[in-house]
Amino acid sequence: MRILISLVSSSTSTGLHLLSVSRRLHTKISPFSTLIGLKPPPAMATSEDSIRRCLAEKQSSIESQGNTVRALKAANAEKATVDEAIEKLNALKLDKSVMEKQLQAAVNGNGPDGSINKEAFRQAVVNTLERRLFYIPSFKIYRGVAGLYDYGPPGCAVKSNVLSFWRQHFVLEENMLEVDCPCVTPEAVLKASGHVDKFTDLMVKDEKTGTCYRADHLLKDFCNEKIQKDLSISAEKAAELKHVLAMLDDLSAEELGAKIKEYGITAPDTKNPLSDPYPFNLMFQTSIGPSGLSPGYMRPETAQGIFVNFKDLYYYNGNKLPFAAAQIGQAFRNEISPRQGLLRVREFTLAEIEHFVDPEYKSHPKYSEVADLEFLMFPREQQISAQSAKKIQLGEAVSKGIVNNETLGYFIGRVYLFLTRLGIDKDRLRFRQHLANEMAHYAADCWDAEIESSYGWIECVGIADRSAYDLHAHTVSISLIHTSCIRCEIVSVLANKRQNMCGKEEKSGVPLVAHEKFSEPKEVEKLVIAPVKKELGLAFKGNQKKVVEALEAMNEKEALDMKASLETKGVVEFYVCTLGENVTIKKNMVSISKEKKKEHQRTFTPSVIEPSFGIGRIIYCLYEHSFYMRPSKAGDEQLNVFRFPPLVAPIKCTVFPLVQNQQYENVAKIISKSLTAAGISHKIDITGTSIGKRYARTDELGVPFAITVDSISSVTIRERDSKDQIRVDVEEAAPVMKSVTDGHRTWADVWASFPHHSSGSAED
Amino acid sequence: MRILISLVSSSTSTGLHLLSVSRRLHTKISPFSTLIGLKPPPAMATSEDSIRRCLAEKQSSIESQGNTVRALKAANAEKATVDEAIEKLNALKLDKSVMEKQLQAAVNGNGPDGSINKEAFRQAVVNTLERRLFYIPSFKIYRGVAGLYDYGPPGCAVKSNVLSFWRQHFVLEENMLEVDCPCVTPEAVLKASGHVDKFTDLMVKDEKTGTCYRADHLLKDFCNEKIQKDLSISAEKAAELKHVLAMLDDLSAEELGAKIKEYGITAPDTKNPLSDPYPFNLMFQTSIGPSGLSPGYMRPETAQGIFVNFKDLYYYNGNKLPFAAAQIGQAFRNEISPRQGLLRVREFTLAEIEHFVDPEYKSHPKYSEVADLEFLMFPREQQISAQSAKKIQLGEAVSKGIVNNETLGYFIGRVYLFLTRLGIDKDRLRFRQHLANEMAHYAADCWDAEIESSYGWIECVGIADRSAYDLHAHTVSISLIHTSCIRCEIVSVLANKRQNMCGKEEKSGVPLVAHEKFSEPKEVEKLVIAPVKKELGLAFKGNQKKVVEALEAMNEKEALDMKASLETKGVVEFYVCTLGENVTIKKNMVSISKEKKKEHQRTFTPSVIEPSFGIGRIIYCLYEHSFYMRPSKAGDEQLNVFRFPPLVAPIKCTVFPLVQNQQYENVAKIISKSLTAAGISHKIDITGTSIGKRYARTDELGVPFAITVDSISSVTIRERDSKDQIRVDVEEAAPVMKSVTDGHRTWADVWASFPHHSSGSAED
């Protein structure tokens, strides 16, 4: 669930969604600046900043020294004097060029050629991935479609392994209720969730060709280009541009348009002028059925399918809380201009969990199992004070209130375990808390699991405590609620009455609530509002119904105020939002009282804690974290390796006859058969290629083990990263593979139990 | 791949697709009638037929006897005479009513209340499925959308188990290349595959309300209703209606419209007149990117994603044939009016295999592993001669040429093993061969795995040898090929030249071909067509290019005929399809010769053999085949059971403490933990409900085993169907469960190894 809707605040923010937040983070310098309006903050004394200042001074020294030289020459000064002045000028120019290099390095973050290394590294990874068909640009023979990718055989196997492990780690271990809903979704559902109105990005058009661009991308590119390439800009200008980058996601259409005009940004391809920014809905629209009258969308997330089934799932769980539902499936976003390869795509696999919990009891029975974990966390405070992420013990974060509650903490811990077991480097994984302005007003707390890649820190999992928002939204359509009307917010009261104050007919009308049965009845004081319909009918005629509804929808404070006014003054002015005007209520028109009642249960809307996984992003980051290069044995080339753990590896082992020989091939087939029976994905390679080349080929696919058949009774098993080799009997090969690939034994265990094979003979 | 396109034949058939064929089969009586045009065939002497004739005779006897009685009465005949005549009349009426019952029984197929039983059985299954959330009508709280269903927790687990087994049985065992392509597909791809033009159903509209109906459904309903409910129609009329049913899928829009008019069929809901039938494309349309200028569709099948990647996959496989690629994923069809619950839906999961093979070598190395299998087959001959399916040994079917080739036979055998291992009843599974008129002209052979359900025989898997059609289609866009132009068919020649005879620019232009390297070069005689461009330019000016292309595209026979004509007569008339007219070719305009060349390899377009699985249909049939009812122990109610094999069961076992007791609950938790560690999905039920009720609850979910904790050292394990119980030590519970659920041991093995528990104590 990736929409934040500002209900009460008058925030100008457009519909943000979690997976877009990473756009901001790549460039975030001083995120708190977003809190203090459009004026740039006072420039901070960063090293980049001081270099820019020195550079500006150096530049003016050069100019003044240049003037000096020209003046000396004009005055026909002595050669020695002129030469000395020229020498000084050259020295200044040399200083400047050194400073420019320093500035370039500071701008790029890590070392003088940091960004170049990142680019080169990414290129090496991506080349290997494409060449070995981990992924393929979709519909390539038709010149492809931006933002759509196929997973080829190894990529598909990796994805399938990641999803299997996700099911094991979350669904099975937590007894979650997995559901599988369609992608085609009718409009009413996405209207209620807010997507139809708010799931947009701002777009500009080339005024001549009509080509579309994302407005914030153009502004971002302009600022980055300026900061990184134009070394002559002042420190103040640089600070301003950085400030714009930091608040990119908070700019309204008008503000974005104004900045684009101010900076004179034109269409990148044609240099034509651009239109004003306007919102473009990111959902793929379609039509359900033959009439053309039922609009539908391809779901932009899987979560809504769970929310609309809450009632049935709660029943399935024996009407007990807490419980979690989960869904794995495709989601769709018609990105305006997809970039960053596999990270921003138009169709992707999401795995989402909705954990429903009583808002008054957010503890978790298995919390103690993760409380001792320690990993990089980046709480709000650290971000605001420009510190970096630091290692914090999860239990401490929860007990200090940094993480809002135990259940949220439990899921953060489980996500950490999930990602690191897949092979994500724990030093390049951090949990970043959302800033106050990133979260919707209804959210209790929100953390993103961010993984560092060559593109920067990428949000791969969002873990949010969304309170009761989503279940409310489907009971009373939030999109129909007046933002100016305070009564519209008390949706839970309305939910039970199956009616919607300000709304028309678009709502499910089904209360999505839970109950807590009391062990013995409790006496409670209840507000009773009894409109006197006869009197109201006489006074308001056709508007009577709306007035009655408005009276019944008053909250306690409103009702008691009215009661007091009626008792003292006899009349009161009362705003009816469905009429859009005040009406006069007299004492005889409504009776308001407090009555004591015995209640046997409490009815409430559960809170939902939502871990949402972008599977494709996790897999891409995993590729980067798993990739390394090492020299070939001869030392004449660099070989690519993916160090996937067996859990993830697309193929668990290869079987190679050392030489082309019928006997060895027969042994290889026998081993292959027993591997298949044990459910181990593997490949036989009987080509006559050298064994070293065959190893290199499979290292590049991340195959962790290779079985080389070099005798008819026993074989050599080689581990990919250490290149260590052991000898095992033919009939032991499959059982050994089984135990090391299903995690019952480590390679170290196996290494300790079998005779070692001296390398060399098989490697060449 | 479910489109049959009639390229050469002038068939009027609309775009058929495999999964729709089942529509016809439910009602098929004399399929061969479709071969002989619109006139009904001579009525056959079926039992139904003869009853109708007798009934008609009986009716006229009644009428004539009625006349006799009236005449006697009018003539004031003797009472005894009148009474005798009346008695005779009553006897005739009694006969008639017996006959009507017989006819009703014959119409319904199996027994006097066959269809009623089927309906009742289906209702019992569906009630259980919906109540236990195997499936849920999607977006129920928003009043749902026809043809969209969610899988709830047990349904989702069954689906996930079926797909895992599919991956194991096909992808892993056959080393297939699995891919994962997007659902959003650009128009060019589906234009080339033929879906944009031909993937349609015929629709009629209520002329007043605009409500849409499938034309063939209305006609089908009318005929069925008439045959089943109107016992007075003549045998000839019944035969005519059955004939219409049998050829429903072959009717053109005009023929369907004519029949609807002839029978006076009106809109079912309003009785308003209907529009003429017109084609409605079943693809969900959308737009890719923000411009609105790139139409796209939600894929109607997964196969195209494989075909467009053929070149990369062939390379990935070391440029070797045969190999198979596979894909599991969502497919979408915007059905006009979805019916039959889970069987005809608008979004569903397909699992498709494309096995690419050299058309000259269609043997299969593992064929012998399936050749001895014997199961129900329904070859074309049997269907035409109105026989029923019979048990045939697969090897015999292949050797006799009933099944076209070994590879096709191999997949038929593998599909049989897959379905029966899931729990499909082998006596309600048949492989039906497509009739000549059901297949596209390019298909070599095609068999459907049909499963009998309460809806009749349902096509669940299609296994087709589609020859080179699909790879051709993406090289040269078939939709652009003139159906009247013989030269347009020699696409493989053109493919290698990257040009398309009659087409415009819409084609991939990438040759999707394979090569066979010869062990030594072969000398071949090659036809060389060398147009003399200078002379052609002089003669045809601007049309020269089209004439050259047409000359180069001639096949061998055409070219040699031209050569002969030119040598004898000096000129020849030549039809150029791109010009749409004949031109005169003179001797000096083209040189045609045969030259000997050495060739090092053969280039060809591979054939594709395609098993395509409708996962949702298989699962629904599995539900019906697994469902049964048995009396409760007290005999006072019928309990529902799904007899899923452990492989499929959504939950493998439950853990019940016999009574609510902390010690037992602790033991249950210990067992639960070891089950989780072993990866066995299970559920603990610690409610105080009687153990019998708890068994009944889980039987209804198809849970095969229950572990009842009735002591702290050992437990009782109960098998669902036999209700047999054994006793095992606490620490053995998980390993025993592991071995029986992963198939390493059967319940019989376990039953033989552990002490039995006398039933009764735990059951209550």
UniProtKB/TrEMBL annotation, chains A, B:
This protein's record includes keyword Iron: no
Residues of the Aminoacyl-transfer RNA synthetases class-II family profile domain: 123-631
Keywords associated with the record: Aminoacyl-tRNA synthetase, ATP-binding, Coiled coil, Cytoplasm, Ligase, Nucleotide-binding, Protein biosynthesis, Transferase
Cited Pfam families: HGTP_anticodon, tRNA-synt_2b, WHEP-TRS
Description of how the protein assembles with itself and partners: Homodimer.
Family listed: Belongs to the class-II aminoacyl-tRNA synthetase family.
Protein name: glycine--tRNA ligase
